[in-house]
Design a protein that fits this description.
alpha/beta, 11 helices, 8 strands
Length: 319
């Protein structure tokens, strides 16, 4: 069996894989990792449903996806999805349910990072509301479409180590807002959601995993100044374990590879309810100074159940 790692690309991970007849939903296909994920899947025959807030932008950004689909026998269709609006999320989910075609895989890729303090259309803190609650409602509403043996891949980040979720003050009503604390909360939530979704659906053979794509230059960092980006990289470098290789940026195809690996290649029991990075399941981190691994609180099954209940309360919907 081929062993993949930090420098593996999407095409390397999918070499020799035929995805003909498999229908895969990818959120955030207007830039970066979402476009590359969709391209690689379509190039190997998958029928990709790409979701994006700005359809005009997505249409322009996915020219490479349509070209890959033509050459590889796959297809691409686009749907509108604004994760910062539950009305938009519910409309997208309702349309998919009404269409009725089943899904093999959902890759919850879209997200925002280090935003100034703000709120979504429904009054949720922007990062938690967009990265977690939007996907929470979307995925749960369309879960009946997932085939037995299907998978959910929830994109998280090593940034989850900045903070556990705060179930008492998710919207920073009583806490001083810090961009990366808010980002950390949302990325921890992405992992905990996968943990609980996996528990609820594994009896149907459906498994869920969270992944860290790596540090890549994409539009995700658009809210950060160059100075802030440089400071972040300096912090990552300073906190790396002794003897670890020097930090380097991943390319977009390398960054999207772990999503593809977890969705297609990895054994279901290997990744179910787990957190993956660099195309392997991550080890439990014992401190906050290392740049790899997963913090124990992000895989805590009781914490995952509590977040699920809090999320249902916040969105006013039970799943």
């Amino acid at each position: 069996m081929t062993i993949f790692g930090a420098e593996s690309t999407t095409d390397e991970v999918l070499e020799g894989v035929d995805l003909s007849g498999r229908r895969i939903l990818v959120t955030g296909v207007s830039a970066g990792l979402g476009v590359e994920t969709a391209r690689a899947l379509a190039a190997h025959g998958a029928d990709v449903v790409g979701a994006a807030r700005d359809l005009a932008k997505a249409e322009a950004a996915t020219a490479s996806v349509r070209a890959a689909a033509r050459d590889g026998g796959g297809s691409l269709e686009l749907i509108r999805l604004d994760l910062a609006s539950l009305a938009s999320v519910r409309a997208a989910a309702d349309a998919l349910i009404a269409d009725g075609r089943p899904l093999d895989i959902i890759i919850a890729n879209a997200g925002v990072m280090a935003c100034p303090k703000g709120v979504t259309a429904d009054g949720f803190e922007t990062q938690f509301g967009t990265n977690h609650l939007g996907h929470f409602v979307l995925v749960n509403r369309i879960a009946p479409l997932l085939k037995p043996g299907g998978r959910l891949v929830s994109l998280s980040s090593a940034g989850h180590r900045y903070s556990d979720v705060d179930l008492d003050d998710p919207n920073f009503d009583h806490t001083d807002y810090e961009e990366f604390v808010a980002y950390g909360r949302s990325k921890t939530a992405n992992i905990l959601f996968a943990v609980e979704f996996d528990r609820r659906h594994r009896d149907r053979g459906i498994r869920a995993a969270a992944v860290h794509p790596g540090v890549i230059r994409t539009e995700l960092s658009r809210h950060m100044t160059q100075e802030a980006q440089d400071a972040l990289i300096a912090s990552i470098t300073a906190n790396q374990p002794e003897g670890a290789p020097a930090f380097h940026w991943k390319t977009v195809p390398q960054g999207a590879a772990t999503s593809i690996w977890a969705a297609i290649v990895a054994a279901p029991d290997e990744i179910g309810g787990r957190y993956a990075e660099d195309c392997h399941v991550a080890e439990i981190a014992t401190g906050t100074s290392r740049r790899d691994g997963v913090q124990p609180y992000a895989l805590d099954p009781e914490r995952a159940k509590a977040l699920w209940a809090k999320s249902e309360e916040m969105v006013g919907e039970r799943f």
